[in-house]
Amino acid sequence: MDPFPTSPPDQTPEEEIAREVGLWRPFTQAVRDLVDASVLTAVDEDEIRAAQAEIEQIVSRLRKEQLSETLGMTHRPNGRRRPWGNPVIGVRNPIAPPLVVRTEATGRAESDFHCGAAYEGPPGLVHGGVVSLLLDQMLGQAVGAGGRPGMTGTLTIVYRTGTPLGDLRCEAWIERHDEVKTWAKGHIIGPDGVTAEAEGVFILPRWVRERMAAAAAGEDVPPVPGLRIFE
Amino acid sequence: MDPFPTSPPDQTPEEEIAREVGLWRPFTQAVRDLVDASVLTAVDEDEIRAAQAEIEQIVSRLRKEQLSETLGMTHRPNGRRRPWGNPVIGVRNPIAPPLVVRTEATGRAESDFHCGAAYEGPPGLVHGGVVSLLLDQMLGQAVGAGGRPGMTGTLTIVYRTGTPLGDLRCEAWIERHDEVKTWAKGHIIGPDGVTAEAEGVFILPRWVRERMAAAAAGEDVPPVPGLRIFE
Predict the structure, then answer these.
(1) Chain B CA closest to residue A92
(2) What superkingdom does the record give (chains A, B) (predicted)?
């Protein structure tokens, strides 16, 4: 959650973005299904080897033309953020479960999602590090939604009990903030209640702090959509 | 890092395990390459749709026979642990970079690894939650290697600076322990030094604590390989 002001604004029309999502979402879901099938399959070795050869073929075709920079580098700052490569929410990232996040401008984020076999740590449970991955993202979403985006400064996870694989819910919200830091909390909820709690400190990116300093010095700082600090 | 005593010991001979690794490692690497190609490809839409259709075909073939339980549930406790589904180190998990971990019985773990575009959070940087995922695993490896396995109780990450995508190193070690808890620390090192630090508290699993209580009560508790507590 760190909009960078150096990228040019994304001028892509809504319909074009919707069309691109319509292309990438099912493709990425197919790769995600392949990841899941990979950790669960019990077919015989010949079938595994045949699948491998076909996958290698597909990879070499997909690699014929590649982006000159990562998806994150083409990240758009101005109300049109497209974090498609994000490993938690990215519509183009097969590693992402993906979480579909609902946010509120009060600084709140929530998501109902599913964690399958590829996210397993202890038997039948979500890997503790995956729990922290999801919570870091969700706390970041909450502070971003609240108009106080930032890089994670510190993150603390308290594991109350194992988080079972399956359908889960994550909630995050802003607790408080000072000029530069925002404190957020969140938790993951399984079928039997809260399994893990998080607290994070997020630090406003330097370009935001520079604009704040410029505004304080009386300079005319134009508002940035979604960034309530200058409103 | 939580060996469960309920699974039967893995009787598979070494050569058979090596053969299975020889099958799964290149297959999983092909899927991992596909994940990477998915977030980086710039081929045209027809090619994406064609690849999707072929991937869906492969998935349905792999799903014809599936394991009756997740890989974690078939996890082996007795010195023959096979965490093949683990999302950080699993030889059968395409989500895992994967980390190849060297451990020392003093309670130390280290790994040199690569994080590509699929792990990106802020532009050009590893997602902060991925940083915590890797550190959680590595701290768990350190306490396990030190003969004090455990479930993560709390995990705190301090982000010193962004962790650049690319070649990285992670180190973790046991700091101290009391009867039930083990404190571990670790960090990730990029080309310019430490980027993030972690501290975690790991709690001995219940079955270990029960054996400890039994031993304290004078019962004859047989040693468990790799678990130095009863030696």
Answers:
(1) B39
(2) Bacteria
